[in-house]
Write a structure and sequence with these properties.
GO terms for molecular function: 2-dehydro-3-deoxygluconokinase activity. The protein is of the alpha/beta class. The protein has one domain: UDP-N-acetylmuramoyl-L-alanine:D-glutamate ligase, CATH 3.40.1190.20. The strands form two sheets. A nine-stranded mixed beta sheet has the order 5-4-1-8-9-10-11-12-13, with helices on both faces. It has a four-stranded mixed beta sheet with strand order 3-2-6-7. A hairpin with a 5-residue loop joins β11 and β12. The longest helix is centred in the middle third of the chain and has 16 residues. The structure holds adenosine-5'-diphosphate and 2-keto 3 deoxy 6 phospho gluconate.
Length: about 300
Amino acid sequence: MPDLVCLGEALLEFSSQQRDGQTFYLQGYGGDTSNCAIAAARQGASVGYVTAVGDDAFGREFLDLWKREGVETGGVIVDPDAPTGIYFITYANGEHEFSYRRVGSAASRMTPQSVPLDIVRQAKILHVSGISQAISDTACDAVFAAMTAARQAGVQVSYDTNLRLKLWPIERARAVIHAGMAMADIALPGLEDARQLTGLEDPDAIVDFYLALGPKVVALTMGSAGTMVATSDLRETVPVHKVDHVDATAAGDMFDGAFLARLMAGDDVVTAVTYANTAAALSTLGYGAVAPMPTAEAVRKALAEKAT
Ligand SMILES: Nc1ncnc2c1ncn2[C@@H]1O[C@H](COP(=O)(O)OP(=O)(O)O)[C@@H](O)[C@H]1O
Ligand SMILES: O=C(O)C(=O)C[C@H](O)[C@H](O)COP(=O)(O)O
């Protein structure tokens, strides 16, 4: 049984590329919790994914991908009556934008009854996100059921805000994400998400807010400003690993996967954040979510180069 279980939706990815005055779409793989699972597996962690995919070519591609990446798929349902979701990435002024085709997808049809709670109960960490809860009411309930089962079994819960206002209104997002965060041991908010969710501007105030909800560790990712990590008796801002980034899609998911992998391997939180910042920076050097994610070897090499 895997140590890290991620729960959510995988999306086939089409990333817009301009060449010779024409637009092409580079096919890749996305979906925040699938990204996190692959990111952690590339760091050597024992990982499984819980989701549903369609009985279609894209669902089969994901099953092949997870197999290649060493992500266990015992918790993946193949739904004959619904498709695998897809999304497009377009770029403007150095920013990326996501456009989804996922309403009615197989993953959005997950329910509390369909989630394999036995896999969750035997993990060390369950990782979920705001997106896992935004895709449908039944998926939202499925995530709450998985978090409840994890807590009852002594499994740590990790929660990334990943606020996507194309999927739900801010009022509902705030209520659900903060209910989820209150069930989490490890809180992984992004700064812009947290500003919208809490109404607070200052990173220290945001970290205080999330610690007060209950998590024992808060890692607030702040893009190029690095990561503020805090527990009840420590607070530190770890700077980014400087790179000439190309596309920051899934930098947050890479951070999550690497951070959780290193915590499970026994690192202290600051060492784990230093590693995860480097892994996340390296993942911005190519287009799309999964393809540019570094292996543990590449992260170690970059950390060693910085140290000399
Ligand atoms: N331009 C960048 N250069 C180097 N590292 C980056 C850059 N953007 C993001 N990162 C790394 O990725 C992590 C997550 O990025 P962030 O943008 O905060 O997450 P999210 O994608 O969830 O919004 C950051 O904490 C940082 O370590
Ligand atoms: O938006 C969604 O629903 C997706 O899952 C598509 C993307 O793969 C992730 O959103 C990337 O997540 P970040 O690490 O925050 O950049």
